[in-house]
Design brief:
CATH superfamily of the largest domain: Butyryl-CoA Dehydrogenase, subunit A, domain 3
Bound molecules: flavin-adenine dinucleotide
Structural class: alpha+beta
Radius of gyration: 21 Å
CATH topology of the largest domain: Butyryl-CoA Dehydrogenase, subunit A, domain 3
Number of helices: 11
Order of helices and strands: HHHHHHEEEEEEEEHEEHHHH
Number of strands: 10
Strand content: 15-25%
CATH architecture of the largest domain: Up-down Bundle
Largest sheet: 8 strands, mixed
Shape: globular
Distance between the termini: 48 Å
């Protein structure tokens, strides 16, 4: 059954499209060139009521669902992937985890921050623990009435612009016994010990910093614990559950970029003449357009279906993984094909296609690689958890 878009959702999509095709489109090249976070677009999203719209009304949001967020993200990403990612991370990811698992106080605090313009950062990946995130060595030791956090995270989206951080660490009790992985809230510039170490120079998506962040004897009160370890692995399972929304969001950015590139190629194929006729009269390009449109239709259907799925408040794990793999891989191909339509002009930095080709490449990596997500899909359809570690491996200290 295809997912039905309601009249209200059509209105939301139209409003998002108007904003995206206006000032957001106009700024996209500059955001890429200057590598500056687009605070003006944050204000535009805020003024339009798009920031934090999935936050429940009781906390000042709109109580929008994942499909609403997807429609917004898709429109923004057609014009500016960075603004699309801001729409993801102010509606999904860390904020959705906090709203699902946080205390009343934490929810109010985080909702206020997002609704006033903060894009929270989620801190999981470490230099030696990427795909095997459970091997993280960042630790939070209970000492007296405080947690003391030490460790290093890298590739943290928003590092240096985000204020609110949701940080995952292995939690140890007073006796030094490991309790599992927990998630903590900390605010940059208000939490001594949280340091932005350096910014990574990235291939694309240059308007949002990716940063290495260190925690040096960072002291947090027990009230900063959002996702308690609740026994080994349970806190991590909660995190992964919340991450299903982020995966759908990331897949949607890839979809939007590819749809934007496809439209540019389609328009150009009518405008550009060679051999005395529009280039879309050559069958070689017609079939390319046909294949691109099929990939986009299938990707959109999977994304919408994943967004509309799920119990316990988050999209279904299997559907989210299937949608992200398919969309991210096909979006790369579609943008690459779209670039080909422009010939030499597609290779120019004056052409938005060049930026889109760099931006779209990320989405088979961040938020769980396509390979690791295939393990999720396989584990789910086989009903078996497939061990990835060698026999005898007990994890890193
Ligand atoms: C732009 C960007 C933004 C990001 N933002 C964030 C963020 O905000 N917060 C955060 O915590 N992290 C973030 N990440 C990090 C991202 O989640 C990791 O890059 C990802 O989990 C992969 O880890 P890795 O880079 O260490 O690759 P590795 O784990 O070193 O993997 C290397 C290769 O091996 C493959 N591989 C590894 N294990 C398996 C396996 N079991 N089966 C098959 N193949 C395998 C991988 O798929 C990959 O191709 C971001 C990354 C990028 C690029």
């Amino acid at each position: 059954m295809p997912v039905q878009i309601t009249p209200e959702q059509e209105k939301l999509r139209a409003a998002a499209r108007e904003l995206a095709q206006g000032p957001v489109r106009d700024r996209a090249a500059e955001v890429d060139r200057t590598e500056q976070y687009p605070w003006d677009n944050v204000d535009r999203l805020k003024d339009a009521g798009f920031l934090g719209m999935t936050i429940p009304q009781a906390y000042g949001g709109k109580g929008a669902n994942w499909l609403d967020a997807v429609l917004l993200i898709e429109e923004m990403s057609k014009e500016c992937s960075v603004t699309g990612r801001i729409a993801v991370e102010t509606n999904m990811g860390a904020i959705s985890a906090i709203m699902a698992y946080g205390s009343e106080e934490q929810k109010k605090f985080a909702a206020d921050m997002v609704l006033s313009g903060d894009k929270p950062a989620i801190c999981i990946t470490e230099p030696e623990a990427g795909s095997s995130a459970g091997d993280m060595t960042t630790r939070a030791d209970m000492k007296g009435n405080r947690y003391v956090v030490n460790g290093t995270k890298h590739w943290i989206t928003g590092g240096g612009v985000s204020r609110l951080h949701l940080i995952f660490a292995k939690v140890y009790d007073e006796a030094g016994e490991e309790q599992g992985i927990g998630g903590f809230l900390a605010v940059r510039d208000e939490t001594p010990g949280l340091k932005i170490v350096k910014r990574e120079p990235t291939m694309g998506l240059r308007g949002i910093p990716e940063a290495e962040i260190s925690f040096e004897d960072m002291e947090l009160p027990p009230s900063a614990l959002v996702i308690p370890p609740r026994g080994l692995k349970k806190g991590f399972a909660d995190l992964m559950n919340a991450y299903n929304s982020q995966r759908v969001g990331a897949g949607t950015v890839a979809l939007g970029i590819a749809e934007g590139a496809y439209q540019l190629a389609l328009d150009w194929s009518e405008e550009r003449h060679q051999f005395g006729r529009p280039i879309n009269e050559f069958q070689g390009l017609q079939w390319k357009l046909a294949d691109m449109s099929i990939k986009l239709a299938a990707a959109q259907a999977l994304i919408y279906k994943a967004a509309a799925s799920g119990e316990n408040g988050f999209p279904d794990m299997l559907m989210a993984a299937q949608a992200k793999i398919f969309t991210s891989e096909n979006a790369i191909q579609v943008v690459n094909d779209a670039l080909q339509f422009f010939g030499a002009r597609g290779y120019s930095r004056n052409n938005p296609i060049e930026r889109m080709a760099r931006d779209v490449r990320m989405f088979t990596i961040g938020g769980g690689t396509a390979e690791v997500l295939r393990n999720v899909v396989a584990g789910s359809i086989l009903g078996k958890k497939l061990p990835q570690t060698r026999d005898g491996y007990v994890g890193r200290d």
